[in-house]
Amino acid sequence: MSKITDLSKSRYCRGIQCPKMLWLDAYKPEEAADVLSETVMANGNLVGDLARQYFGAYSLVEFTYNKAEMVAKTRALMDAGTENIAEAAFLTDGLYCAVDILHRNGDGWDIVEVKSSTHLTDIYIEDMAFQYYVLTSCGIQVRRVINLHINSAYVRHGELDLHGLFTAEDCTEQVKAKSDSVAANIASIREYVSVEEEPGRDIDLYCENPYECAYKGYCGRHLPEHSIFDLAGMQAKTCYKHYHNGIISFEDVLANAKQIKLSAKLRRQIESTLYNKPDEIDKAKIREFLDTLRYPVYHLDFETYQQPVPLFDGISPYQQIPFQYSLHIEQADGSLVHKEFLAKEGTDPRRALAEQLVKDIPKGVCSLAFNMSFEKTVIKRLAGTFPDLADALMDIHDNMHDLMVPFREQSYYSTAMQGSYSIKYVLPALYPDDPELDYHNLDGVHNGAEASSAFADMTEHTPEEIAEIRQNLLKYCGLDTYAMVKVLRKLKEAVE
Fold this sequence. Notes:
The chain is an alpha/beta fold. It folds into three domains: 3-193, Lambda Exonuclease, Chain A; 221-277; 285-495, Ribonuclease H-like superfamily/Ribonuclease H (Nucleotidyltransferase, domain 5), CATH 3.30.420.10. It is built from 20 helices and 14 strands. The strands form three sheets. Strands 1, 2, 3, 4, 5, 6 and 7 form a seven-stranded mixed beta sheet that branches. Strands 11-10-9-12-13 form a five-stranded mixed beta sheet, sandwiched between helices. Strands 8-14 form a two-stranded antiparallel sheet. α5 (122-137) crosses α7 (172-193) and α15 runs antiparallel to α16 (390-398). It is globular, with a radius of gyration of 27 Å.
């Protein structure tokens, strides 16, 4: 059997999504973009390691590049009466899988697949069906197939309760229903990847579902500079439907506007791009928004992170935990005062952050956020957690305004915004080529995802590294609220 046609459970699932991924892995791996999230992988490893204790004591089959050695160790543990085997390895006919937990069930075994997500998906069933096929082909009597995933409703109180943290979902019947198609899928995938000449395969929803493909850019290289996939807010499923009907370029979209039921906002995005239109500014609407603000204005931005396994009481898996904020206080004359908070690494940041926030923002003042629904959600949750601070926190919540509104309503529209009203598009559109406002010029932390990741694993670093990371976090979050100050000033300039 050629190594190209060898299949693990992950390669099988990639082949189910799109077999061309496996062909490109073999023949053109240099075309792959980096789409793997280190945070997602770290979460998966953390959850996987913890789940091994779900059924009690276990034995681990340590990884080695020698698959036969792992298979032999697995068999020895099974024969010795081991109840739970983590990473149990099986190999047959070039098909390999490592079962997250092999759990003894009478005279048979349960396959337990662990996922760090909070729900079951179709691709997980495919994954488990492959494992079921491999194990039964090896002569293993499989009693049940279980998907062990995170229970999002779990709230930690005291010691971690693994049976509360995880949901064990019996997928045996679903997997058995799929198992008849596994052999045919394997044969089809193997035939596809064994051809040396690049197979022709058009782009489709499988380029991003269930996972974004690393070769999406390569396979979509024939698309024009401005295509239907660049339309802001249009669902991928809809984009691919129109694409396969020959509606691809912006010109195509305009020519088929009635068929597509093109909205006024999308038409504006297309026409401003094609015809290089100047900025469109509705002064009356902008003035109406500005009149709702009161000085001093408190520009506020939070940074949050998530824990797949909650470390602190009162926290649920993947709950947004605020650990930092930046606050630019702007007076009517334009003068600024900057305040900020960044929690101590390794601690529950919520109480200290909430206490500082109500000190920094007095009652009754006007606070401003960009996409305030996020900030409001954070504040409301803090108010529910700390009743003694709830009155002051909800005052901030109730007096908050949203700087995104003029851009969401396209009262101020620039071609460079590409139909988006995210501040990451709005800011460079309003201040092109301004190095002071360029997130790329920051060190270490350039976006919210990097900020979350940096804080989450800060305790793994040396004191010197921690000091540097903290400085990077403060600069990043500070730029977020300074950017809001600059955006508000541009709105004021537009109506003056």
